[in-house]
């Protein structure tokens, strides 16, 4: 399925972030993510959101380079040619990123890989679902006589909601509903294989979502991204709530003693020896910024949530950032709260009624406990390179996966196999 955790560091084939270099023995799927360009729609997603940004940075850097060159030649101020050249290269990269967004995104982003080899570039989205299902089924049958971990990261339900003809128009909830029904069918097929191979009583299966609905996603006048269910309220956090594989690591291997891991084993909960998991706090990050903290108060069973920052929705109270395309994590796109907004999720799951010291007797006690947890949490953190920095998110030709001779990247080996 979808990896979307990076691919290369220094060269096109070093694959430093590839699944096979991070604990997996086999990989089939998309190294990047699903975008509208993969389907060839008239509403390009990456181009629309990035073209203006790339072009703005290109203009700014170009102006800076010309200013430095003129200043250098006229002896207005001292500056090394090395600095000017580095800045010019940076400007060229932004220009190439802007240029490549016009029609090239499908070739650079929408690709399939088997292990370390690119097998489709661009991928045939009409056949991707069946190909991934076949791979998963084959993997189960191939490994049925030994313990295995199969991680299926579906392309459903993700915009542009690519749905095969068999499921189009089946749901009364439009294209989003069609896509959900197809996902349900895929999950059912995998469960059928587990049952037919007599693995039902020896296999642990769990289903999770890595984030909520993409509310800003739309096609013409219709919304594509669904909604976030009954928990829709006044406050939403741009953060992931994915289920981490390391929470299950104690099922197969002991935790390394020298590693500081904030996960907690779920094994006692799965065995029924305890009523609650070992997780007491959940920290909601948006990028590198801590936006909210959830606390499960074990003695009372109450779940509290404190918001330190919330998105500035556009339009107001819409629950989304339609004008920006995506809610930012910092700057004028967020509102910081001091004191934080506190909610009792046990009584107010939609987060519609923020509490205060006047309305909640435990307000100060809860906030002190959460502040202490944040302090302890930050002591465990170490500084790492920012993977979401502007430089790390611009297109770099020398890191682009390619089947063939770059930039003439094109192959459809999956069709040949079929």
UniProtKB/TrEMBL annotation:
GO MF, one example: metal ion binding
Alphabetized UniProt keyword annotations: Calcium, Hydrolase, Membrane, Metal-binding, Transmembrane, Transmembrane helix
UniProt cross-references to Pfam families, sorted A to Z: Sulfatase, Sulfatase_C
Stretches that traverse the bilayer: 54-71, 83-104
Any one of the GO CC terms: endoplasmic reticulum
Cofactor: Ca(2+)
Domain called Sulfatase N-terminal: residue spans: 1-231
Annotated family: Belongs to the sulfatase family.
Entry protein name: ARSD Arylsulfatase
Gene source species: Neopipo cinnamomea
Gene name of this polypeptide: Arsd_0
């Amino acid at each position: 399925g979808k990896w979307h955790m990076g691919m290369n560091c220094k060269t096109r084939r070093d694959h430093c972030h590839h699944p096979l270099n991070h604990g997996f023995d086999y990989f089939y799927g998309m190294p990047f993510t699903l975008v509208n360009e993969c389907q060839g729609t008239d509403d390009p997603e990456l181009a629309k959101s990035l073209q203006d940004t790339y072009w703005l940075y290109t203009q700014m850097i170009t102006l800076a380079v010309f200013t430095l060159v003129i200043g250098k030649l006229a002896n207005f101020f001292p500056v090394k040619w090395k600095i000017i050249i580095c800045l010019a290269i940076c400007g060229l990269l932004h220009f190439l990123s802007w240029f490549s967004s016009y029609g090239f995104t499908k070739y650079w982003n929408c690709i399939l890989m088997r292990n370390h080899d690119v097998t489709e570039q661009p991928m045939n989205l009409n056949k991707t679902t069946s190909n991934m299902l076949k791979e998963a089924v084959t993997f189960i049958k191939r490994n049925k006589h030994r313990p295995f971990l199969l991680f299926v990261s579906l392309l459903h339900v993700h915009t542009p909601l690519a749905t095969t003809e068999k499921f189009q128009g089946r749901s009364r909830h439009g294209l989003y509903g069609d896509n959900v029904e197809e996902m349900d069918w895929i999950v059912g097929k995998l469960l059928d294989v587990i049952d037919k191979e007599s693995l039902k009583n020896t296999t642990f299966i769990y289903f999770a979502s890595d984030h909520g609905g993409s509310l800003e996603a739309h096609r013409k006048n219709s919304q594509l991204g669904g909604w976030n269910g009954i928990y829709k309220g006044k406050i939403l956090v741009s953060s992931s709530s994915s289920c981490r594989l390391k929470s299950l690591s104690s099922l197969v291997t002991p935790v390394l003693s020298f590693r500081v891991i904030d996960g907690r084993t779920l094994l006692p909960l799965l065995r029924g020896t305890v009523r609650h998991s070992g997780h007491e706090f959940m920290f909601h990050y948006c990028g590198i910024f801590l936006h909210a903290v959830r606390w499960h108060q074990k003695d009372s069973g109450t779940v509290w949530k404190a918001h330190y920052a919330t998105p500035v929705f556009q339009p107001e109270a819409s629950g989304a950032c339609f004008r920006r395309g995506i809610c930012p994590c910092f700057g004028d796109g967020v509102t910081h709260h001091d004191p934080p907004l506190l909610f009792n999720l046990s009584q107010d799951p939609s987060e519609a009624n923020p509490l205060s010291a006047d309305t909640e007797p435990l307000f100060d006690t809860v906030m002190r406990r959460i502040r202490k947890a944040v302090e302890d949490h930050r002591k465990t953190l170490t500084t790492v390179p920012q993977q979401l920095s502007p430089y790390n998110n611009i297109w770099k030709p020398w890191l682009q996966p390619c089947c063939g001779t770059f930039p003439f990247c094109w192959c459809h080996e999956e069709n040949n196999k079929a």
